[in-house]
Amino acid sequence: MGNASVASEVDVAVDPMTAFTVFTDEINLWWIRGPINNWDSARVVELRCEPGVGGRLLEIYDEASGDALELARITAWEPGVRLAWDSSVDDVQLEVQFRAVGHGTRVRVEATIPAGGKDSGGTAFVRMTPPWFGAWCAKRDRVPHELRDTDRLALAVYYARPGTAARWLRDAFGFEPAGNMPDPGDERGDWTEFRIGNCSLMVFKREDAHSAGGPATRVPWVFVDDLEAHFANARAQGAKIVEPIHQHGYRAYVADDLEGHRWTIAQARPTM
After folding, report:
1. How much is the CA Rg of the chain, to the nearest whole Å?
2. Closest Cα to residue 87, out of 67, 58, 108?
3. Which residue ranges make up each domain of the chain?
4. Structure pTM?
5. Residue 135's CB: how many other CB atoms inside 10 A?
6. Right CATH number for 153-267 from 3.10.180.10, 2.50.20.20, 3.20.20.70, 2.40.30.30?
7. DSSP state letter for 267
8. What are the φ and ψ backbone dihedral angles of 238, each rounded to 5 degrees?
9. pLDDT tens, 60-76?
């Protein structure tokens, strides 16, 4: 069985050298913050791309102590033309090409998984570059170059047909997707997120029975400074723990309150 590959493209209205510079130097601005958008979303303070072959793609947790996770190592650095790296967290090899087209640049991202290799998230750039990098290039000349973090309250909504619901929320209410939308007919309910101001609205599939006797349709997410202390206090006050503290990019626990309403409590990032 041979290599597997996935690719995506996006056209941006800047020249190839600018596109390359924005992709690398401003990666912490165009890569959107969110509950599952980093390896450790509860701790990350910066995403950084070191220049040159041998440079690292880093998820920074604490600048002073040097606490960081190496996501990838740069294998090709051709400003305005090509960028490539080997993932340090799985077996994915990624290449980004910058080609002049019309009044701008076509950015092509291709991820290759060697035969027998593992993809633990290294292909995420293929999915996220078109919506996130494209949107940032379109607005970077008219908005502050400041980190836009999410607020501490988010909302998850659950639908029987989450793909249809997500597209309807986009088309009818004008909600801005924070990533790719589900294709027509895709009702799996994988993570679909909208950004409303600095808040996240997440759409999932309604299927689990709720403790009050019906399915959960809306679940608030609250981000707190000390998740362990919050968990201990909630349990002591009689909260019904549905899921203990667990990690999935974010760290969180799930509990029902005194009337059976469900809540997700997650660890806040240092910059929130």
Report:
1. 20
2. 58
3. 4-139, 153-267
4. 0.82
5. 17
6. 3.10.180.10
7. E
8. 100, 10
9. 999 899 999 999 999 99
Residue-by-residue DSSP string for 120-166: SSTTHHHHHIIIIIHHHHHHTTTS--S-----SEEEEEEESSHHHHH
Q: What is the mean pLDDT of residues 226-231?
A: 96
Phi, psi (rounded to 5 degrees) for 163: -65, -45
Q: Does domain 4-139 have CATH number 3.30.390.50?
A: no
Mean per-residue pLDDT over the chain, rounded: 92
Count the neighbouring beta carbons within 10 Å of the beta carbon of residue 145.
Answer: 9
226: its two tokens:
């000390």
**Smallest Cα–Cα separation from 20: which of 63, 78, 59?**
78
17 secondary structure, DSSP code:
H
| pLDDT of 13 | 97
Report the Cα–Cα distance between both ends of the chain, in Å, rounded.
Answer: 45
Residue range 12-43, pLDDT digits in tens: 999 999 999 999 999 999 998 887 788 888 88
Query: What does the angle CA 92 – CA 186 – CA 163 come to, to the nearest 5 degrees?
Result: 110
Asked whether residue 225 carries a pLDDT value surpassing 80, the answer given is yes
Structure tokens at 148: 């836009």
Report CA 222 to chain centroid distance, whole Å: 18
DSSP string, 179-236: SPPPPTT--S---EEEEETTEEEEEEE--SBPTTSSB--EEEEEEES-HHHHHHHHHH
